[in-house]
Amino acid sequence: MVVGAGGGDELKLLGVWDSPYVNRVQIVLNLKGLSYEYVEEDLMNKSDLLLGSNPVHKKVPVLIHNGKPIAESRVIVEYLDEAFAAGAGGSTGASVLPSDPYERAVARFWAAYVDDKVGSPWYTILFARERGEKVEAAARAISALETVEAGAFRDHSSEGKTTNAAAAPFFGGDSIGFVDVVLGSYLGWFRVIEKMIGVRIMDAARTPRLAAWAERFEAADAVRGVLPDDVDKVIDFLQACSCTRVGVLLSTSWIALFRLLCRAGKNVPSCFVYLGPNGILSL
């Protein structure tokens, strides 16, 4: 599938439709006005192209630019910002990272903080077996967002575009920037988590400025149609993935009992099935 318009370079994005890490790359490609080919991957049956393009991690996203693969979402975003600076290579969009070295460092700090403190609990919420673990992880993500609201907007300087940094509509100032793209890529999943465990991650009562920012971000032309907005579809997708292969708990005694039950033709208790953060381990 070819997306976008403009630019003469050959760009191909390997991804999964509901991945926030893929979505952030799509948003930057849209911001830059770049045309690219999108290839949907089946993570249960990864393509030779994906495995060959990212042999270290074997995961999406991977951007292939004129035959050269780049992996890891934040690395890809920075690469696009450098390779397709405003007016270069067909790019029509502004830079995602600030031009000032200090401001770039601040943006990178907060982007890394978001992935570490919001992204890590997100995995736990999705894959932990106990509801208590999920709720505790959600609380960590909420606390991290409170820190972002208190610190990231305050630390932001919009390089003269807005006299009051705190009044800027985005972390990137008057336009979407690096931190906006990284945090914004999780917004669709916040809604999924709310339906899964009944906890609202981004709440206007706790983080009013972030809640208002989220509305502005999702209304942007480059973002519309990218983030997953069908919560039930995402949940169905997760359930389908969890049923694709049979998994077991990693205990030698439990594995032995599992095999014994299978050989005896007995029904296997549901407690043996476990979907881990890296997929299902099969016997």
Automatic annotation (TrEMBL):
EC number(s) per entry: 2.5.1.18
Gene Ontology cellular component list: cytoplasm
PROSITE patterns attached to this UniProt entry: GST_CTER, GST_NTER
UniProt keyword list: Transferase
Gene3D superfamilies: 1.20.1050.10, Glutaredoxin
SUPFAM superfamilies cross-referenced by the UniProt entry: GST C-terminal domain-like, Thioredoxin-like
Annotated ranges, domain GST N-terminal: 9-88
Span of domain GST C-terminal: 100-237
Record's catalysed reaction(s): RX + glutathione = an S-substituted glutathione + a halide anion + H(+)
Pfam families xrefs: GST_C_2, GST_N
Biological process, per Gene Ontology: glutathione metabolic process
Family: Belongs to the GST superfamily. Tau family.
PANTHER family: GLUTATHIONE S-TRANSFERASE, GLUTATHIONE S-TRANSFERASE, GST, SUPERFAMILY, GST DOMAIN CONTAINING
Protein's name in the database: glutathione transferase
